[in-house]
Amino acid sequence: MPIKIAKSKIAKGIFLLRFKTQYELAATFLRIQEHYESPRFHGRIFSLEQYMDWYAKRYGNFTYYQDWSGFNVPSTAFRPFYEGKFNPLSAKEKQLLRLFKDLRERFYVIGIYDSGDKSNLTHELAHALFFMDDTYRKAVRKAMRDYDTARLGRQVAEAGYAKHVIPDEIQAYIIAPSGKLGAAPALKPLRQKLRALFRQHSNNLSIPEIS
């Protein structure tokens, strides 16, 4: 039986998917997200079982569905799934792919679940803007040059991200910290600058009311 997914187009090329539960969200996005940004599986074709084995070995148990509450993937990450390289697909993955099968232009998808922390949405929106809004991305990179974010970059890598997404993750975690990630007092001045840029560039997004 298909799960309920609320799909909203919040800007040109940016889509928000809302799920009822964290499990449904994480189980739907796992392989496409980790194909995009996993330090181990980025760019690789893998089964769910292979990923579960690796995750349990790295973290002591397979707790992925409880650990991650927000997701973000560009249209390029969908390509091998549409090409059949990840077959057999799960029912949840098939449902996700059906939502965007007719799109040909560049797009970005973010996912949250309804009872999650609202800061999750801010964090994922920061990713979407960084990927889709060239002006935002350039302004963020310029602001970050004046601050030492190396420690946060190492923390982000240790949390489970591939090298190519670390600058994007740094800006998103500074804007919307999660636990210790991005919350260092030394980053407060940069946080103020990046949040101002985020507010400026997110004003035109059509974001639905989140309960």
How far apart, in Å, are the first and last alpha carbons?
Answer: 25 Å
Estimate the helix proportion, in percent: 40-55%
Q: What would you report as the Rg, rounded to the nearest angstrom?
A: 17 Å
Q: Number of helical segments?
A: 10
Let me know the largest β-sheet: 4 strands, mixed
Mean pLDDT: 95
Tell the overall outline. globular
Q: For the largest beta sheet, what order do the strands appear in spatially?
A: 1-2-4-3
Class of secondary structure makeup: alpha+beta
Number of strands: 4
Give the strand content: 5-15%
Q: Quickly count the domains.
A: 2
Q: Which blocks of ≥5 consecutive residues have pLDDT under 50? A: none
What's the SSE pattern?
Answer: EEHHHEHHEHHHHH
Describe the structure.
- With 211 residues, the chain is α+β, with helices and mostly antiparallel strands.
- The chain has 2 domains: 5-113, no CATH class; 130-202, no CATH class.
- The chain has 10 helices and 4 strands; from the N terminus they run ββαααβααβααααα.
- The longest helix is centred in the first third of the chain and has 16 residues, at 22-37.
- The radius of gyration is 17 Å and the shape is globular.
In a nutshell, what does this entry contain?
This protein has ten helices and four strands.
Topology (SSEs and partners):
Layout: E1 5-11, E2 14-19, H1 22-37, H2 48-59, H3 64-67, E3 70-74, H4 79-82, H5 91-98, E4 108-113, H6 118-132, H7 134-144, H8 150-160, H9 166-175, H10 188-202
Helix pairs in contact: 1-5, 6-7, 6-9, 7-10, 8-9
